[in-house]
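Technical annex, item 7. During the second reporting period the consortium partners agreed on a shared format for inverse folding records so that results from different sites could be compared directly. Each record opens with the tokenized structure and is followed by the designed sequence. A conforming record, contributed by the partner at site C, is shown below for reference.
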């Protein structure tokens, strides 16, 4: 059962912040029959990759992660693309909204891409592209590389690693081998925002566009490419002006599925570009699925012939004290709540911990589905003075917690399931680091499950989970 402290002097507002309990009447699940445990993850990077570069550019989000081997390479590598100084950017953005400053005056830090070189050292990440070589200090306009995707171009048959940016002009880069100085700019949107996700469907690469800035006239768009030509597929947010971004794409059951950002009514899921000339688009889910508080559909993942989708809840709705949900869509487009109110798992929103306001990543590894969260409690613990309180029961058992750590249970959560119904916690405190407030990316490979964190305090981390043979 979930334990809560009885401390009469705690203000009621802090009592409301207690989260993480299983739903009433639901006992802790039995010991899991398999899958990774927290002690089977090894840290394979330094914070922010290296301290000198992190001091300068603040590599704090592992925004993109991909495994890639070029056609002429004998060895493949794990690549990570960064988002930089994100807390500073969010603060500047809110200041611009309040003070009326131009968004163009916001100062970004240049992102980069790195690849893992265990042959050179257990925590060596080689820099392969640095935006300091593309834009000039102090007028950086590109905030980060939002997403990466491997795609063999239909136009010429070459296998490329694609990387999409977020900034004043959303762009798309690619490389045949991922080597330093061997990247080409292949497409520009001409507008502020980002390519949030890419997906291959029927031999084409599709790009989901969202304007991630508080400007008027935002609308979700989808583009497609064969590796040479680019063309627009959706320009009007599926006809709904409240669909201000396309946040995710995935190919499923012969169709291309798209998840939107809709802060007014809750996200929508559409399907289009279907088989045998049927193009849609057809609405599959609306009003945020289980709750209109689910503003964005951000993490699609195929598992056991069903399409799972995690949600995101933004700052204005966080005052609802409600975590994000997970749904799953069946081949006939019926859907059910996996995590949320009246869910098949028994877990409430945010896995019963309301600060889990994003289900930020999902991946399938060795027959298990993993889901990583963003835990807002980590940010809250940095906003309130820390009070030491040792020897309390609770989820933070790896180190002596302070009072707010205990009450808010800070650090990103990672859950796993073998059937989509019964979920087991892998870690509930950011892999023993409460400053890892998000598991931003999950990547399943032949040699392990890689986890990229969001950590604006001491820099991103990359972990590798490998079960013993």
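Designed sequence (site C submission):
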């Amino acid at each position: 059962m979930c334990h809560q402290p009885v401390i009469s002097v705690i203000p009621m507002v802090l009592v409301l912040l207690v989260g993480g309990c299983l739903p009433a009447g639901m006992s802790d699940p039995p010991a899991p029959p398999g899958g990774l445990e927290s002690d089977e993850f090894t840290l394979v990077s330094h914070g922010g990759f290296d301290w000198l570069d992190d001091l300068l550019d603040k590599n704090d989000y592992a925004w993109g992660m991909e495994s890639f081997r070029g056609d002429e390479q004998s060895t493949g590598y794990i690549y990570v693309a960064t988002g930089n100084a994100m807390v500073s950017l969010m603060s500047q953005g809110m200041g611009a909204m309040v003070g009326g400053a131009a968004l163009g005056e916001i100062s970004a830090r240049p992102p980069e891409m790195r690849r893992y070189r265990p042959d050179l050292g257990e925590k060596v990440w080689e820099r392969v592209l640095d935006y300091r070589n593309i834009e000039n200090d102090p007028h950086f306009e590109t905030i980060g590389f939002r997403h990466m995707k491997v795609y063999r171009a239909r136009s010429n048959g070459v296998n490329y690693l694609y990387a999409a940016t977020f900034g004043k002009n959303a762009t798309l880069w690619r490389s045949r081998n991922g080597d330093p100085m061997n990247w080409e700019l292949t497409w520009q949107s001409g507008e502020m925002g980002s390519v949030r996700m890419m997906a291959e469907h029927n031999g084409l690469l599709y790009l989901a566009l969202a304007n991630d800035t508080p400007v008027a006239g935002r609308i979700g768009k989808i583009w497609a490419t064969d590796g040479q030509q680019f063309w627009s597929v959706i320009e009007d947010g599926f006809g709904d002006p409240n669909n201000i971004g396309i946040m995710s794409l995935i190919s499923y059951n012969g169709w291309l599925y798209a998840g939107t950002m809709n802060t007014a009514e809750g996200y929508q899921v559409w399907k289009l570009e279907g088989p045998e000339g049927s193009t849609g688009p057809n609405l599959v889910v609306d009003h945020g699925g289980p709750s209109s508080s689910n503003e964005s559909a951000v993490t699609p993942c195929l598992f056991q012939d069903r399409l799972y989708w995690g949600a995101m809840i933004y700052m204005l709705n966080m005052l609802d004290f409600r975590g994000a949900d997970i749904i799953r869509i069946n081949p006939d487009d019926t859907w059910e709540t996996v995590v949320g109110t009246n869910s098949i798992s028994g877990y409430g929103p945010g896995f019963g911990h309301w600060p889990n306001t994003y289900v930020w990543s999902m991946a399938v590894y060795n027959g298990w589905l993993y889901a990583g969260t963003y835990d807002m409690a980590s940010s809250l613990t940095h906003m309130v003075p820390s009070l030491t309180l040792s020897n309390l029961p609770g989820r933070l058992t790896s180190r002596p917690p302070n009072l707010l750590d205990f009450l808010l249970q800070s650090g990103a959560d990672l859950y796993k399931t073998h059937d989509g119904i019964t979920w087991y916690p892998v870690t509930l405190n950011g892999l023993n680091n409460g400053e890892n407030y998000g598991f931003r990316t999950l990547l399943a490979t032949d040699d392990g499950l890689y986890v990229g964190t969001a950590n604006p305090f001491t820099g991103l981390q990359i972990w590798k989970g490998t079960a013993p043979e």
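The chain has a mean pLDDT of 85. The longest strand covers residues 142-152. All partners now use this format for quarterly exchanges.
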